[in-house]
């Protein structure tokens, strides 16, 4: 049976037995529209809005491409982006000086430190000088801690986008059994916290977990952030489960998720496609966090 993506152009269709395709673009469009309205309202009140700084090290093409994409999408929303690119061999002191400068500058409301960091620089070196009020990626321990305590924080964009997808497609969370596969600080751990805050019963799996197929089979909601294409097999999944696939691995020039999509789509109740699922919502959530940082900076 052919199922059209909800709220997507009819030409974008996927072969599926019954699964709801949780496309990211419609969700991202709604978030962006709200952000644009907020930016327009702020621009009426303040002649100049503070912008976003993206700090990056090295010349990795994927990292450069990411910085360009942020610049394009934020500029389209009427925001200023300053990209500071440091050489691959940048010293810790150099990076810290840039981050400290942006942390102090009133023209900058939000700062993204692009990952991965080079070998010579540790995450601690970044958070030692990053103003948590400008930490729109939610990497600072103060924001991570506030998220755990259920206080207002900058929740990392990717997992916040996962919750937005579940909400948009009407997937209930409270009381459900949720499995998060992957425990990175930017995706897995905050995803687990956000699901817990929404009253799911949460299990976190990682590379040392035993019997992953069984854990997957028990979950109503599966959120994967592993980085291994097609690793989660369709037969592991519970019928009618909702699957958020954050995986983004390039295989033969194509982006692939962590879940074997062709198998899973025949089994589950709802699933995000890759590409076009969690990715677009992540960048919209980053914009949302930045608008929040701008309001904070302007005390608006
Ligand atoms: P990461 O830091 O490399 O973490 C990967 C996690 O997967 C680790 O916790 C690791 O466990 C776990 N893992 C590895 N092999 C496993 C296995 N066989 N069974 C169970 N768990 C296993 O990765 P990340 O930064 O979270 O990113 C994960 C994926 O999401 C990547 O493909 C990345 O490109 C993608 N991503 C997507 C978005 C988006 O917007 N869609 C945003 C960010 C990242 P250990 O902790 O035990 O090593």
Gist of the model:
Helix content is 39%, strand content 18%.
Describe the structure.
This protein is α/β, with parallel strands linked by helices and 300 residues long. Helix content is 39%, strand content 18%. It has ten helices and 13 strands. The chain has helices at 24-45, 61-76, 92-104, 123-127, 141-148, 157-168, 188-197, 212-217, 261-264, 278-298; strands at 2-4, 13-15, 20-21, 51-57, 81-86, 108-113, 177-181, 201-205, 221-224, 242-245, 249-251, 254-256, 270-271. The chain has a six-stranded parallel beta sheet. Strands 5-4-6 form a three-stranded parallel beta sheet, sandwiched between helices. The protein has a two-stranded antiparallel sheet with strand order 1-2. Helix 2 (61-76) links the parallel strand 4 and strand 5 (81-86). Helix 1 (24-45) runs parallel beside helix 10 (278-298), helix 6 crosses helix 7 (188-197) and helix 6 crosses helix 10 (278-298). The longest helix is centred in the N-terminal third of the chain and has 22 residues, at 24-45. The protein is globular, with a radius of gyration of 19 Å. Mean pLDDT is 93; it is low at 1-15. Residues 158, 181-184, 186-188, 205-209, 212, 225-228, 246-249, 278-279, 282 line the site of NADP nicotinamide-adenine-dinucleotide phosphate (NAP).
């Amino acid at each position: 049976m052919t199922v059209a993506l909800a709220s997507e152009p009819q030409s974008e269709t996927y072969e599926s037995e019954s699964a709801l395709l949780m496309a990211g673009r419609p969700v991202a469009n709604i978030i962006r529209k709200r952000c644009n309205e907020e930016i327009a309202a702020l621009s009426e009140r303040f002649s100049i809005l503070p912008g976003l700084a993206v700090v990056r090290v090295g010349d990795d093409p994927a990292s450069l491409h990411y910085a360009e994409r942020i610049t394009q999408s934020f500029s389209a929303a009427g925001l200023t982006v300053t990209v500071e690119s440091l050489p691959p061999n940048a010293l810790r002191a150099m990076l810290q000086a840039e981050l400290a400068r942006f942390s102090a500058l009133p023209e900058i409301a939000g700062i993204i430190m692009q990952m991965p960091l080079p070998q010579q620089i540790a995450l601690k070196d970044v958070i030692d000088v990053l103003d948590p009020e400008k930490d729109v990626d939610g990497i600072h321990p103060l924001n991570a801690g506030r998220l755990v305590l259920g206080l207002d924080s900058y929740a990392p964009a990717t997992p916040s986008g996962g919750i937005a997808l579940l909400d948009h497609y009407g997937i209930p969370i409270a009381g459900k059994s949720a499995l998060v596969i992957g425990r990175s600080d930017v995706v897995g751990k905050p995803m687990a916290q956000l699901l817990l805050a929404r009253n799911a019963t949460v299990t976190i799996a990682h590379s040392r977990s035993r019997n992953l197929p069984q854990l997957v089979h028990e979950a109503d909601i599966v959120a994967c952030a592993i980085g291994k294409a097609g690793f989660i097999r369709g037969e592991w999944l519970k019928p009618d489960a909702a699957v958020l696939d954050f995986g983004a691995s390039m295989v033969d020039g194509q982006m692939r998720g962590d879940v074997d999509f062709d198998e899973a789509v025949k089994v589950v109740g709802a699933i995000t496609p890759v590409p076009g699922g969690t990715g677009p919502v992540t960048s919209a959530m980053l914009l949302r966090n930045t608008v929040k940082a701008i309001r904070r900076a302007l005390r608006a």
